[in-house]
Amino acid sequence: MKIKIILSCLLLLMCLAGFSQEKKSGKGKKKSSAVIEKGLVKVSVMYPFAEGKTFNMEYYETKHMPMVAGFLGSNLVKYTIEKGTASGIPNTPLPFMAIGSFYVKDLAAYQAAIAPNRDAIRADFPNYTNASPIILVSEVVK
Amino acid sequence: MKIKIILSCLLLLMCLAGFSQEKKSGKGKKKSSAVIEKGLVKVSVMYPFAEGKTFNMEYYETKHMPMVAGFLGSNLVKYTIEKGTASGIPNTPLPFMAIGSFYVKDLAAYQAAIAPNRDAIRADFPNYTNASPIILVSEVVK
Known about the structure:
The structure is a homodimer. By secondary structure, chain A is α+β, with helices and mostly antiparallel strands. Chain A is built from 4 helices and 4 strands. A 4-stranded antiparallel beta sheet of chain A has the order 2-3-1-4, with helices on one face. In chain A, a hairpin with an 8-residue loop joins strand 2 (76-87) and strand 3 (96-104). The first copy, chain A, is globular. Chain A starts with a helix and ends with a strand. The interface between A and B is large, with 50 and 50 residues. Strand 4 of chain A pairs antiparallel with strand 2 (76-87) of chain B, so a sheet runs across the interface.
């Protein structure tokens, strides 16, 4: 009788342990699907290519982008960097040397975070490029 | 004595059960990090904004992009759509109305898949826009 009770308790414990693990992995899944971008605001800083324009990707990736990302706090969901390699239309020049994009939850919060740091951001431009970026604000549709 | 053996066996089972759950959630994590984009080729089709230019996002999202994605097969890792809403630089016009991007493993395979379908793709343009896109091929750095 005693054994049966102990066994029942242990079985119950096993079920609970299994359940808690399931919940944990469920949370893990939720976390990874939290990087779904649909609905976020994307701010893309695009550096057009032209004769004589230069871009130091190593500085941009290791210094400039982490600095700007640091200003954005928890509003920033993720940021991406891409290096332009070619135009997809034959016999046309490379449109952009590089694009850095910030995926944020709220545009007003992004602007409020950038405003007091705009001079520091602009002062860093000559460290990696002599091109003037264009900036696209967009909504992630898919 | 018998009880001790049974208890030991059950404890061992519990440990094994816990371990297998851990492994499962580990696998889950691996799967979600498989969508990491670094190193992929990104082909961005960008529709510039100008006076009189139009763009039907609903058609683009539900018809055009799925059609093109269908041509790319397993080379396509994912595709994204964004809707341009503003320029990030005050007093400058919206740079792009929309951007559709294909993240592929291999550029040559992308080109080989698009080539025989180029006419069908172009013939679909008037169904959603009167703008001519520019196309940027880039490498995902981060």
